[in-house]
Specification:
This protein has one domain. Helices cover about 70% and strands about 0% of the residues. It is built from five helices and no strands. Helix 1 runs antiparallel to helix 2, helix 2 runs parallel beside helix 5 and helix 4 packs antiparallel against helix 5. The longest helix has about 40 residues. It is elongated.
């Protein structure tokens, strides 16, 4: 299993970095769209009708992609007080339970978001003209990445190796 994990880790690291860059790009594009909306409303006196639904769709993407990156890099907020007060064996069990539940949550997100996308596919998003099911694509992709990254960390904890690809920027004096 260690060999398998070391062989797939570079691909998962690239997928993680891609999700992070796409989330950052989505924030920038959403900011530009909202800026255009404000300019259109107050300067041109003509609010673009497509700006709000498109920016909300982009927000869904960058929130869920960012959440997946947070799962892989273990940067989500947590209450570590109890975790640090128990023995390493109990810590490992707590980590495995937590990561197992996160994996199941990601799988459930994919499953139920897929059902919602199929159920709303015939509806149309009025201003954009997209099928209604498109609104659930970020949840499907984000849930898949959350499940994948949590499963990776679950295996790492189970094998007793905590590997992260987090780049920490330090100040050089």
């Amino acid at each position: 299993m260690r060999h398998f994990m070391s062989s797939v880790r570079p691909g998962l690291a690239m997928l993680n970095r891609l999700a992070l860059y796409l989330a950052g790009f989505g924030i920038i594009v959403m900011t530009l769209i909202i800026g255009w909306q404000v300019f259109g409303r107050y300067v041109l006196n003509d609010t673009p009708s497509w700006s709000e639904p498109l920016s909300l769709h982009l927000m869904s993407w960058f929130i869920l992609l960012g959440a997946a990156v947070g799962v892989r890099e273990s940067v989500h907020l947590g209450l570590d007080l109890v975790h640090h007060m128990v023995s390493p064996t109990i810590q490992k069990i707590m980590d495995q339970v937590s990561l197992g539940l996160i994996t199941l949550f990601g799988i459930a997100m994919v499953y139920y978001a897929t059902l919602l996308a199929m159920g709303t596919w015939s509806a149309r998003i009025p201003v954009l003209g997209w099928p209604g099911g498109v609104d659930f694509f970020p949840m499907i992709a984000g849930g898949a990445l959350i499940a994948l990254f949590a499963a990776e960390r679950f295996i790492d904890v189970s094998l007793g190796q905590e590997v992260t690809d987090v780049v920490v920027l330090t100040e050089v004096a």
